[in-house]
Specification:
With 804 residues, this protein is α+β, with helices and mostly antiparallel strands. The chain has a six-stranded mixed barrel with strand order 2-3-8-5-7-6. Strands 12-13-18-15-17-16 form a six-stranded mixed β-barrel. Helix 2 packs across helix 10 (308-348), helix 14 packs across helix 23 (715-757) and helix 15 packs antiparallel against helix 21. The longest helix has 44 residues, at 657-700. The protein is elongated, with a radius of gyration of 34 Å.
């Protein structure tokens, strides 16, 4: 079949200059790759998290209570709207890691054979655990470094130690579902045993439950329905004489880590569209150069009757072919990367990944972008290039208004002490200022995002460090039962390493709704008057004064819930089932939405409230005399625990300050890792743009290179000139990228922390990002210049002097 001449030209343009074609295809492909991966992440991540969470039949209402028996479970099952109820026993213990440290451990027991709520996924081993066996959630299993079949030592609150065999490693998507600061990432290591094993490790009344997990038969995604059912169940449980320590409601589709995922997706979409935008820049620059090269061809086509519309169609078809080729090149790569990324995230943020499948919405988006973005980016150059008259086009030059020598050219001319090849290379950088601007925009934005990832990490760490101001003690001890403060202090001060001790307390507290009903739970804490172990971040008003009585400091979530609540106003909370009035003296910033509602009052006033017993406490914060690093804090905690247990003091948990910080940063490390992957993609776009620019610059100066070679310029001199030119462009982009990184870092870190915490973070500066990007952009500049330099040195003098 005979191919018409116009389409022969299209095929010739595709094949003759393979380097240019590959660069255009690569610039489109990078944008499509980013869109394919992130769009798949958005659709599949949200779908799999919701679908997988619903499949485990999560607890729509979760109660932490005083001990209840099976009769209470059966009673709740008979209530209207209740689908199923599981009773579970949660016990705080400790587990000995292979490193020899005692880690906090939450052990849960229930009738696993009959349990229908919060089902786990078995990753390896056998489920459910039998007598003398223990199963672990994969959440923090790396801290223990245990394997199936091994025996592990756990310790109860009496200090008794027991050996249990590891029977399974499971995934439990209910971890973090009860809320609280840090949620999933701050949760202790989770283990599972049966009732017989619970009895063996000397847990009193193992047949009783401390947790009630309830699934509802109505619309479990309706927030108002969940709230009403939660209140009804709460009232009924309390009417039966059961004490509720904490309760929460959750939609069957609301995975505990969904807020983190939403924060990830929002910022990734921003960066993805930036990549698409930058790849569009490259297409515009490449097509503009192509049309400048083919001005005479346009003139010939017009002289033999070709209309402007026909000529435009030729180039639009050419760019469409580039888009189609990029799409098919990208498709398998995007599928592979999406699958690997989702598999990685399924372990890191604890959801069920149902495997890669074709997502038609993503395919449609990619096809649309593969055709529309290249055509949109190329349309203006094509329109301009085909708008020439026959006379202008056949002459090979476009009519331009002569311009005077620019300021940069005059500045370069005044430079002294540089070799002639270096001056020529410097002048060549600014010869085509339009192309230089496009290249610098692409590479500078890529560098700015790359640098910003490191600054965002610093911002996150600074935010976490700020949160650590609420846990200033070296170790935080929770006892199983309240003990006399003087007794505990005497024991601990006997250790010469102990510097100071504070006894803290708290109570069950809730917000009262406008209609008088009980609302959300409040983390209500009583601190010693003038405490030295907390230094809150105040956003309005002041912190507690030691002389305050009924004063209260609230976190910023109260401001979101009650926008009219001001410093000096009175707020009524239900504390230990009693309505109590407090005067608001200030608002502080804690962990935003992840921290829930938090309030602090002075200990002296707290002890005067009805039902409170003075001089008893179950929470103690202890500081060493000397500053301790992470390892020393662990040793200090181990020594303190041994001393308490030797005196028959039951320790529920003991946590170092460093461990609290580490748990909080786990989620952020996932996010910054993904951001770094996208930053590398953006850097790749920039390097493609620089390679294209250097190739086009060399092609424009082909005759000039021939003249230089004819008067004795060696291959080494020409190569050095091209490399210097590439390095100057790279270093200029580094300067601009460094400047742009400041606002971009602020936007990125604030966007994520607002999504997670409902509060902005401060700006974080990291010199690491600037240094690494300088090295990277220098290497990219050299690599991007090598191929054009090689092309320049391969041409013979005869070829370059005859070049049109």
């Amino acid at each position: 079949m005979q191919i018409r001449p116009r389409w022969q030209k299209v095929l010739a343009d595709l094949w003759i200059n393979k380097t240019r074609s590959l660069l255009i295809i690569a610039s489109i492909a990078v944008g499509l790759l980013a869109v394919g991966v992130i769009a798949t992440l958005y659709f599949d991540l949200n779908n799999d998290m919701s679908k997988g969470f619903a499949r485990v039949t999560p607890a729509n209402v979760l109660f932490k209570t005083s001990l209840v028996d099976q009769d209470m479970v059966k009673h709740l099952e008979r209530m209207d709207g209740v689908k199923a109820v599981d009773g579970a026993r949660d016990v705080s213990m400790q587990v000995l890691s292979t490193a020899g440290n005692w880690n906090s451990l939450n052990v849960q027991s229930k009738d696993w054979a009959k349990a229908s709520i919060g089902q786990v996924t078995v990753l390896e081993g056998s489920w459910p655990p039998g007598k003398n066996q223990i199963a672990f959630a994969n959440h923090k299993i790396k801290d223990l470094n245990v394997k199936i079949g091994e025996w592990i030592t756990i310790q109860n609150s009496d200090g008794e130690q027991f050996s249990l065999q590891v029977s399974a490693i499971v995934k439990d998507q209910m971890l973090g579902a009860a809320g609280g600061a840090g949620g999933f990432f701050a949760a202790n290591t989770q283990a599972y045993v049966d009732e017989k094993t619970l009895e063996k490790i000397h847990v009193q009344a193992p047949e009783y439950y401390s947790t009630l997990q309830i699934s509802l038969s109505g619309d479990s995604t309706d927030a108002s329905y969940l709230k009403n059912m939660g209140e009804n169940l709460r009232a009924d449980i309390e009417d039966n004489g059961v004490t509720i320590y904490n309760y929460s409601t959750r939609s069957s589709l609301a995975h505990p880590n969904i807020d983190l995922v939403n924060a990830i997706v929002v910022i990734l979409f921003m960066l993805t569209f930036l990549i698409v935008f930058l790849s569009g820049f490259l297409i515009t620059s490449s097509l503009q150069f192509l049309l400048n090269q083919q001005v005479q061809q346009v003139g010939i086509m017009k002289s033999i009757g070709g209309t402007r519309r026909q000529i435009m169609a030729i180039y639009l078809v050419l760019i469409s072919i580039f888009g189609v080729l990029a799409f098919f090149l990208t498709l398998p790569v995007a599928s592979f990367m999406s699958d690997r990324l989702l598999s990685f995230l399924s372990d890191q943020i604890n959801f069920t990944y149902f495997g890669y499948r074709t997502n038609w919405a993503v395919l449609i988006i990619q096809i649309f972008l593969a055709l529309i973005v290249p055509i949109g980016a190329a349309y203006v150059p094509i329109l301009r290039g085909t708008n020439l008259s026959v006379q202008e086009a056949l002459s090979g030059i476009q009519q331009q208004i002569p311009t005077s020598e620019s300021f940069v050219d005059r500045l370069i001319a005044r430079l002294k002490g540089l070799s002639r090849p270096t001056l020529i290379a410097l002048r060549n950088v600014f010869r085509n200022k339009g192309r230089l601007i496009l290249t610098l925009v692409t590479l500078s934005l890529g560098g700015a995002v790359f640098i910003s990832v490191f600054s965002v990490r610093v911002s996150f760490n600074s935010y976490i460090d700020a949160l650590s101001r609420y846990f200033l003690a070296d170790i935080n001890i929770a006892l199983s039962n309240p003990e006399r403060v003087q007794k505990i202090e005497n024991m601990l001060y006997a250790n010469p390493e102990v510097g100071s001790i504070e006894a803290w307390s708290g109570a069950r507290a809730s917000i009262l709704n406008e209609d008088g009903s009980v609302g959300d739970n409040v983390n209500f804490t009583a601190v010693p008057n003038g405490s030295q172990f907390i230094n809150p971040i105040m956003v309005e008003g002041r912190w507690l004064d030691p002389r305050d009585e009924n004063a209260i400091a609230l976190d910023d979530q109260f401001q979101s819930r009650f926008p009219d609540l001001k410093v000096g106003d009175t707020i009524t909370l239900k504390v230990n089932d009693k309505d109590t009035d407090f005067v608001v003296v200030g608002f502080f910033q804690l962990a935003g939405k992840l921290g829930g509602y938090a309030a602090y009052v002075n200990m002296d006033y707290f002890n005067t409230l009805p039902g409170q017993v003075q001089n008893l406490a179950s929470v103690y914060r202890v500081n060493a005399k000397n500053s301790l690093n992470a390892s020393e804090q662990k040793q200090f905690a181990k020594a303190v625990q041994s001393e308490l247990e030797a005196s028959n003091i039951e320790v529920s948990s003991i946590t170092t300050a460093n461990r609290i910080t580490e748990s909080s940063t786990d989620g952020f490390n996932i996010l910054t890792t993904i951001l770094l992957v996208l930053a590398i993609l953006i850097a790749l776009v920039g390097s493609i743009g620089l390679t294209g620019t250097m190739s086009m610059n060399i092609m424009e100066r082909t005759r000039e290179i021939g003249i230089m070679r004819s008067i004795g310029a060696s291959d080494q001199v020409l190569t050095r000139m091209v490399l210097i030119e590439g390095l100057i462009i790279g270093w200029l982009s580094w300067i601009l990228g460094a400047i742009l990184s400041f606002p971009i870092s602020t936007l990125m870190s604030n966007g994520i922390t607002r999504a997670l915490f409902g509060a902005p973070s401060g700006f974080g500066f990291s010199i690491t990002g600037y240094v690494i990007w300088f090295v990277v952009v220098s290497i990219l500049s050299v690599l991007s210049s090598l191929t054009p330099a090689r092309s320049a040195t391969r041409l013979t003098i005869r070829e370059v002097l005859s070049y049109e």
